[in-house]
Amino acid sequence: MATEREEKPPWDWSSRRSKLLVGTIVSLTSAVTWVAFSQLLQNSFHASTFDAPFTLTYFFLACLLLLFPGYLCVARIAKWESTGDILRECIHIYRGSDEFSWVAFLWKSILFCCVTALTLYTYFRALFKLSAADCTALFSAHHSFVYLMSWIVLFEKFVAMRIFAMIFSITGIVLFAYVDGFGSPAMFGVVMGVAASSGAAVYGV
């Protein structure tokens, strides 16, 4: 009886309360980090003549490689499993229900890399034309694109209220373009921001 209590994890991560707590913390952390990242990046643009969004995309993708070891450490603590089991679970999720094939593995990897690179490039390019607040607001509209694509591609359940939310979100994008005029230089920044939002939605779906 005592042995079972010692082996039991101190916190039930599968409970609704745990998921709500972790989801709230991750959402707030992601939002604050992304806004701070956008603002600091734009300040560096205005403080110098630096204009190399593709180089920024390369370094940003390279830095993402450092996040996976951190994920392994957190998952090992949270799931109470060995590192090998977590790696096998990641590979199983990545390859899907099909049998492992190097061609399919390389195809998925190249596709994910291209979508991520295009999303980051268009977002960085939008920061050259718009303020960080405007770019962040446009990028936050990717949730509407996620629902639209999941409704079309994944055949998610139709919910009227979500359709209204998506319409309001797209209306906000149109108003962003209308404020500065459809023929103004800022229009290019709006297009890049919407492209980045769409790319994030494709990556998510």
Measured between the Cα atoms of the first and last residue, the distance is 45 Å
Radius of gyration: 21 Å
How many β-strand stretches?
0
The residue fraction in helices comes out at over 70%
How would a textbook summarize the main sheet? none
Mean pLDDT, rounded to whole units? Answer: 77
Structural class: mainly alpha
Q: Give the SSE string.
A: HHHHHHHHHH
Number of helices: 10
User: Judging from the principal axes of the Cα atoms, what is the shape?
Assistant: globular
How many domains would you count in the coordinates? 1
Low-pLDDT runs of 5+ residues are none
Which descriptors would you attach to this protein?
205 residues; mainly alpha; globular
Question: What does it look like?
Answer:
This protein has helices at residues 2-7, 16-47, 53-64, 67-79, 83-95, 102-129, 132-139, 142-152, 160-180, 186-204. α3 (53-64) packs across α6 (102-129), α7 runs parallel beside α10 (186-204) and α8 (142-152) packs across α9. The chain has one domain (55-204). It has ten helices and no strands. The N and C termini lie far apart (45 Å). By secondary structure, it is mainly α. This is Solute carrier family 35 member F4-like. It comes from Elysia marginata. The chain crosses the membrane at residues 20-37, 57-78, 99-124, 136-154, 185-204. Keywords: Membrane, Transmembrane, Transmembrane helix.
